[in-house]
Amino acid sequence: MKTNEKKELRAKTKTELEKGLKDANNDLRKMKLEHQQAKLKNTSSITNQRKRIAVIKSILKEKSVIDEVSVDKGGGK
Fold this sequence. Notes:
mainly alpha, Helix Hairpins, elongated
């Protein structure tokens, strides 16, 4: 995954990322099925898709941690 793609993902909102994650998981499932049926030409696309899913999950986790930290700081104790 290129740096520009990661920057674009970081600019998205949490809901957009969650939708993208769901779509990426569905695509991965389809790729695996095609691979089992010997229809998939580019088998490295499965690995690339898994990496893309990992990046999306990492960005979602970062956003949730940032949200938690900002809520904790705003508590005022």
